[in-house]
Amino acid sequence: MPGFWKARAVLAEIALCRGKAAEATSLTDELIAALPPRSRPWGHACRGKILLWAGAYADALESLELAVASGVPQSLRHRGAALLLSGRLDEAGSDLEEALRQGVDAEGLTWRGELRRRRGDFKGAVEDLNAAVRMDGANSFWALANRALAKGAAGDAAGQWADFSTIRRDVLDHFETAAGLKAKSAGDPAAVRAVLEAGLALARGVRVSNEYLFPVWMSHGLQA
After folding, report:
1. CATH topology of domain 104-224
2. 96 in Cβ contact with 77 (< 8 Å)
3. Going residue by residue through the chain (224 aa), what tens digit of pLDDT does each one get?
4. Which of 17, 56, 66, 224 could make an SS bond with 215 (beta carbons 3.0 to 4.6 A apart)?
């Protein structure tokens, strides 16, 4: 995308980070209208990502379909994420597999790990999430949350607690607020699971462990 249009896309992200989802979507609509036809798929990729982060998965898919058809980078991963969160697991799997064939990154591995966990493939989920944690380092809290849930579902309460305890305290505070409870020890795996599931629900379509996006899901939690 030409630099000028990319700057306008960043303005939409900033609006979303300020809790102004309608303004963010409006800015992406204006961006698409202003782009020449050959460049509009880039605008749709931006719109789809914004709507994914905002939790509007059906609307996100509408734009991401157009972006994927034109081969816009990262749009296949985001479409897979929107499909996953819409409950369309088989389609999500196809997209995420292809996205990772095109290029491996922590976000893509986190999404595929989450998909595998939801399908009950806990071993495969942990493998993906291990790789995501190695790539993303100490701030890989979305991968850690998913890995903890996968370990807990596989009967590894100690491993679940170890991952839970590794997540940043300020992030866990928001998870616990969303859950309305605190998980205090490995001896209460149900509470740990409830807090982690509340955290992932709070995140909606965000699986990027970047403080830039904290206001997107943290402000959502405050408004909920």
Report:
1. 1.25.40
2. yes
3. 556 678 888 899 899 988 898 999 999 999 999 999 999 999 999 999 999 999 999 999 999 999 999 999 899 999 999 999 999 999 999 999 999 999 999 999 999 999 999 999 999 999 999 999 999 887 899 999 999 999 999 999 999 999 999 999 999 999 999 999 998 887 899 999 999 999 999 999 999 988 889 999 986 544 43
4. 17
Same fold, 1-102 and 104-224: yes
- Amino acid residing at 41: P
**Residue 206: both structure tokens together:** 């965000």
Buried b (16+ CB within 10 A) or exposed e, 43-79: bbbbbbbbbbbbbbbebbbebbebbbeeebebbbbbb
Tokens of 151: 């370990």
pTM of structure? 0.92
CB 15 within 8 A of CB 29: no
Show me where the domains of the chain are located: 1-102, 104-224
Block residue for tokens 């409950």: 87
Q: Is 56 left (phi over 0), alpha (psi -120 to 50) or beta?
A: beta
Distance CA 221, CA 30 (A): 28
**Where do we find the tokens 């819409």?**
86
What tokens does 96 get? 């995420």
